């Protein structure tokens, strides 16, 4: 498989008062297309910072991040915006659904923002993805009418509707019971298998680690272990 992401000596330092916090202390990492990768480590180890930098929600203090060989740091702001919109999707533990929108409208939102498809095509694609995560027939419901597991399925559908190359999932099972978490991980594994999307998780959940095909352990902002299964 070809490399989709490369991190070269990536460092991230935050200034808190008179102190410097080294969230990432020089990370070298290559991620290939189609990986199902769990990033693990204690709280404060740099997991979320790593995902935020890959997703261009944050920028490194030094080092380079390459997407298909092209440096993200060399891109202009409009190019970075296009990179995020077209190639990256996010799944968060808090779901981040818009409460005044229906399930279908939440899922349609990334395509509406892109303005590339007709209204009819957007609806058809949204309904297809909603059905693929096990929510067929629930498109007119609002988030308040769903269980936590159903809300996370909507969040997954919204992340996948634009067919991203990379899905970044920050503790996606943290608010779910073990049975629902297993179902959610199974959905993401199936999508990874059938669509070839690259999944990168930040997680403490042993279930996610168990099903990941690669587990990257980060401690004190450095890669401590890199296990492939």
Q: What is shown here, in short?
A:
With 229 residues, the chain is α/β, with parallel strands linked by helices. The protein has helices at 47-54, 77-87, 103-114, 119-132, 148-160, 178-195, 206-211, and strands spanning 3-16, 19-32, 36-40, 62-67, 70-71, 88-92, 166-170, 198-202, 214-219, 222-228.
Write up what this structure looks like.
The structure is a single chain. This protein is of the alpha/beta class. The chain has one domain: Rossmann fold (3-Layer(aba) Sandwich), CATH 3.40.50. The protein has seven helices and ten strands. Strands 6-7-8-3-9-10 form a six-stranded mixed beta sheet, with helices on both faces. The longest helix has 18 residues, at 178-195. The chain is globular, with a radius of gyration of 18 Å. The mean pLDDT is 93.
Helicity, as a percent range: 25-40%
The tally of structural domains comes to 1
Distance between the termini: 16 Å
Strand order of the largest sheet: 6-7-8-3-9-10
- Proportion of beta-strand residues: 25-35%
Biggest sheet descriptor:
6 strands, mixed
* Global Rg: 18 Å
Q: Which structural category fits the helices and strands?
A: alpha/beta
């Amino acid at each position: 498989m070809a490399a989709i992401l490369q991190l070269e000596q990536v460092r991230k330092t935050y200034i808190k008062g008179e102190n410097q916090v080294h969230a990432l202390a020089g990370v070298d990492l290559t991620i290939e297309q189609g990986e199902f990768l769990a990033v693990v480590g204690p709280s404060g180890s740099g997991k979320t910072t790593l995902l935020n930098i890959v997703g261009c929600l944050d920028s490194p203090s030094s080092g380079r991040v390459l997407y298909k060989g092209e440096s993200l740091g060399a891109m202009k702001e409009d190019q970075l915006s296009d990179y995020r919109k077209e190639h990256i999707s996010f799944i968060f533990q808090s779901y981040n659904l818009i409460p005044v929108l229906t399930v279908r409208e939440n899922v349609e939102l990334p395509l509406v923002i892109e303005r590339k498809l007709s209204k009819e095509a957007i609806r058809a694609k949204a309904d297809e993805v909603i059905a693929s995560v096990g929510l067929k027939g629930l498109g007119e419901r609002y988030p308040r009418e769903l269980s936590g597991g159903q809300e996370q399925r909507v969040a997954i559908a919204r992340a996948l509707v634009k067919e991203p190359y990379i899905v970044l999932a920050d503790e996606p099972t943290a608010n779910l019971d073990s049975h629902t978490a297993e179902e959610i991980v199974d959905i993401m594994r199936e999508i990874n298998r059938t669509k070839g999307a690259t999944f990168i998780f930040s997680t403490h959940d042993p279930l996610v680690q168990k099903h990941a095909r690669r587990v990257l352990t980060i401690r004190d902002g450095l890669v401590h272990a890199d296990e492939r299964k």
